[in-house]
Design a protein that fits this description.
430 residues, 16 helices, 0% strand
Amino acid sequence: MKAKDPDDAGAPAESVCSMVLQILVPFLLAGLGTVSAGMLLDVVQSWDVFQEITEIFILVPAVLGMKGNLEMTLASRLSTAVNAGKMELVREKRMLIIGNLALKQLQATVLGLLASLMATLLGWMAEGKMPFNHIVLLCSTSVSTAFVASLLQGIIMVGVIIGSKRMGINPDNVATPMAASFGDLITLALLAGFSQWFYSFIELYPYVLYLVDLLLLCLIPLWVVIASKHPASHILLHTGWEPIITAMVISSIGGLILDKTLSDPNLAGIIVYAPVINGIGGNLVSIQSSRISTNLHLNYSPGEVPEDRKSCYNPCRTFFGSGANHRSAQILLLLVIPGQFIFIHTIHLMKGGHTLPSPLFTFAFLSASLIQVFSLLCTADCMVHCLWRKGKDPDSYSIPYLTALGDLLGTALLSLAFLLLWCSGDSGSV
């Protein structure tokens, strides 16, 4: 099935104005969610558990990124299914939704466990020691947070996609940013709450932590049985692990960078802004990835790509052209500067951080964010087409890699920006 127009054929018709409006509202909501998450992280970093078990900071990008990966891949898969007409029949829609939610609970539980083990390994490598009770707390906190956050946000995401369809809105434009709008805040609140709660039990009632882990791990066979009943989720039971596990490892490295940066009191202000730059970058590139994936599903057979994507990759092709995906890439990149400008000033007005938005800080932060998003959009264009050419579904593969890369790039660039600001003597910013 070959398209006459490689960008627009078969896709929902959109004007530039409608595209901007559909992207802008969820983008602003997602931004406010990440701002709130940053402010919350600034508050909870002084809690006993965060002071005593600093490896939790390694968990933060990993758990937030994992949540985002699972939510956004779910949103992307369901958005593609809606646009391809696969959710018209009630029975098919119910099986598709239940199968995907069960798969997501399975992935959340397993990845929560792996994220805690990764945080333990990185913490041990950095410090040279890791008490056993710290390992147990990290495990219980990570698995509980991933399980509860995944369940709550998965149900919300299904409602958003079905609602978008009924309102005539393209789910690709709203689903992925809405998945992360207040997801970071909810996930971070659960992470802080569970960690402090388990910390209060760790000396007198350690068996509570073991029971929580045992209960959630015992549910794994149930999720496997339910997910295997739908063909799409059944396939992902076997093939969907590589991208999300790799993404979790990449995000954990970003968490290690954050943990080490926070160990320097001169750079402590980074804690407020890390969720903002990481969350916004991930949201924007997820929109583009979902849109390109939908276009390929509608117009090309697996393994077949547009003619202009068969040659060597050229970054100019991502932003210059007349297709809808070229326009969306331009819009997403143009949203970075005004969007992040609003968000950093919102943080300052709400007194959520230790930094003032001085001109030098504003320039450094916006430059880091712009470099991050530009790199991610170029990477998304290349990666999605490469995955499709290899016969892999970009909805399940691309977003985990892209959001994890966004976490790593965002944290590294932000740390570099704060270090340069401190070296330049801009004490009002750091």
